[in-house]
Please model this.
Amino acid sequence: MVLGRIIIYALRYMRGPKEVRFAGSVANWIAENLESALAENLKRNDVKANLEQFDVAGHSIPVAVIGTGLGPKPASIFPPIPCAPDGFNHKEFFSKCKPPCAHFVAKDYGHIDMLDDDKSGCKCKNGTGPRDLTRRTVGG
Model:
């Protein structure tokens, strides 16, 4: 969703106090704005952000990036807009990570396949296979 793109735009090579301040500003934005940003982007008023199951990771700890193979592919020919276009997806995020880091791709799945069976209003390309194993893998 848009949150991932916002964070990718904001990624910088930071160390020490600057990185800590930036992480704090991201955490503050999430606490104050995530729910309304999700509701606006999903065009739904019943969205509730569950911050008790939310993690933030910086660049100075080991990172595992898990992306989807269908994120850069549009769901339809009109409009031909992917959910996670090249340059704004897991590949870009991984390219900004510093070792130790790992990159995994669920090549036959899309974003919503990782999250929910309710795809109403979603314009993301989805896979056709079973989602349970992939969701458990992404969930940790």
